[in-house]
């Protein structure tokens, strides 16, 4: 997933994506705690994807705020 793909999505789609990623991060943490996690790099990727989604959401919110203010 890259930022370009995320910018094409609506805020509602981004919020759904964020919820899915957070659930996945929770499951990965749980697997790590029980020593069942095989791909430890996936945790890093999920964390970064969450950050990307949040960044794009904040950019869209800021753009909407400046449009209303103008």
From TrEMBL:
Keywords linked to the UniProt accession = Ribonucleoprotein, Ribosomal protein
A GO molecular function assigned to this protein is: structural constituent of ribosome
Q: Which InterPro entries match?
A: Ribosomal_protein_uL29, Ribosomal_uL29, Ribosomal_uL29_CS, Ribosomal_uL29_sf
List membrane-spanning regions.
none
Q: Which Gene3D superfamilies match?
A: 1.10.287.310
Q: Which Pfam families match?
A: Ribosomal_L29
GO terms under biological process: translation
Q: Where is the signal peptide?
A: none
Instruction: Look up the record and report any one GO term of the cellular component aspect.
Output: cytosolic large ribosomal subunit
Regarding protein family, the annotation reads: Belongs to the universal ribosomal protein uL29 family.
Q: Which PANTHER family does the protein's record reference?
A: 60S RIBOSOMAL PROTEIN L35/50S RIBOSOMAL PROTEIN L29 (PTHR10916), LARGE RIBOSOMAL SUBUNIT PROTEIN UL29C (PTHR10916:SF0)
Q: What is this protein called?
A: Large ribosomal subunit protein uL29
Q: Can you name the source organism?
A: Profundibacterium mesophilum KAUST100406-0324
Top-level taxonomy: Bacteria, Pseudomonadati, Pseudomonadota, Alphaproteobacteria, Rhodobacterales
Q: Which gene encodes it?
A: rpmC
